Amino acid sequence: KGVVIKLGNNFSYTTLVNKNILDVGAATLDRKVANYAKEKNVGNLEFLSCIPGSVGGAIIMNSGCYENDISKVLLSIRAIDKKRLSVIEIKKKDIKFSYRGTDLPNNLIIISAKFQGALGAKEKIEKKQSDFIEKKKSSQPSQIKTSGSTFKNLSKDKKAWMLIKEAGCEDFREGDAMISQKHCNFFVNNGNAKSSDIENLINKVKKKVQEKTGVNLELEIKIVGEK
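User: That's the sequence. What structure does it adopt?
Assistant: Structure tokens below.
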């Protein structure tokens, strides 16, 4: 229930404003930012090619992978303050980042961001990006419907998938939703799963992991609306 605002094509763009600084619309797909940066010989943004979704969500979630995240490349954001109905700019220094999160208030709609990369040789950037993509393909489900990484990792030694496996949840399923055989922190829609199937599967795994390991898994994905 409520209103959903979807940013349209006018918010999907990437421009080079300085030799290594990109101005990016919040609706731009993360992988498109990585590809654009590569063409402009700008590195350190290669990891975005492995992040599903768009820039606005990536900032809110402080998305990342392979020892990289948004906090390392962000310079500033522009956002609409829903309370004042005005556009404001927020510098990186005024944002507190955490693992898969920020302290940005809910009354903001991010509309654009500035990222700072590092100038480099296109061949090296391309190789690094390609290595990231291959690494992801070999360890995570691809070309299939998933919600992405479901639970947050507690630490390097206590990753969510390890706890799910330890608790014996690998073969759990609800309706047409099941746990990926390739990576058990990814929950798969086999084609006809309802959102409630995914949510029931999440709750089933969360409960089992707590019973078996004593760990209360925290969601990395965000559930919006009613079940």
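The longest helix spans residues 195-213.
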